[in-house]
Amino acid sequence: MKLFQLLSLLLVLPSLLLSQNFLSNKKFELPKEITETSGLFAKSADSLLWLNDSGNAPELYRTNTAGDLLEKIPIPNSQNRDWEDLTADRQGRIFIGDFGNNANRRQDLCIYIWEEEKGALDSIRFRYPDQEAFPPASVEDWTFDMEGFFYHQDSLHLFSKDKTREHSFITKHYVLPAQPGTYTATLKRRIELPKRVVTGAAISPDGRAVVLLAYRFKMVLGIFPLTPADIFLFQNYTGNDFLAGEMTRVKGVRCFWPTQYEAIDFINTGQVLIGSERTPLYHQKAKRISIPLIEPEP
Known about the structure:
Elements: H1 3-18, H2 20-23, E1 27-29, E2 37-44, E3 47-52, E4 59-63, E5 69-74, E6 85-88, E7 94-98, E8 110-115, E9 120-127, E10 145-152, E11 155-161, E12 170-177, E13 181-184, E14 186-192, E15 197-203, E16 209-215, E17 218-220, E18 224-226, E19 229-235, E20 246-253, E21 261-268, E22 271-276, E23 285-290
Parallel strand pairs: 9-13
Antiparallel strand pairs: 1-23, 2-3, 3-4, 4-5, 6-7, 7-8, 8-9, 10-11, 11-12, 12-14, 15-16, 16-19, 17-18, 19-20, 21-22, 22-23
């Protein structure tokens, strides 16, 4: 190849890689309204529901898989104190997790239940069985932040985010009834993930696989911030003891510019979609990732 042709190719290659046609099968940009992507529910192939986290309007955003904004859905009589994830049951009830707890001091944890067709809003209020101080006296015990959950078999399954500043990477699995009321959550199990904290959770359509989206903020050479994100896949579990299943680590994204991937859901049995927040150097995006599922025995 002649030098001129090579230089021309190098000049146009970035544009080709960033073009919508090239990225349409793998990833796409999210609308400007979804700046702090924190939760995703894939209702269907071309009906994706997203939410922003704390400080944003109490509303959901519907897009297609090209990233086009189709609809804004205000949630009346609600407050976005710190929305972190959303899920839905088979009857179409949407559950919105207002349970972000960065300072580990909240005593008003809430999950909204939104019935869109009826325009009805209800809520679940809850506490953790193992939290007695708000916040705990030692940062070593700050394990009560929450950013991921999903609905499964009449229950909501919540997965905590460790806030102990590199000391550990604990996630705890809590269970709540998927009905309005005030409850003490049930602590099912806790595990330590390899150098990642959980920011999202989802279960496959057939209920045979659970994924946790998790990332780590770290500095390289003390000056370059990186936020690598991975997916932890759990299979071959018994009942709803998901964290006792066989765990596989799936490579997510390696960002040269710091951002946070906090939204995840299955778009079909073998693929998930993850979403990132906007930063001054990084546009909010969604990315499709294949999941290596174990085939069921005949």
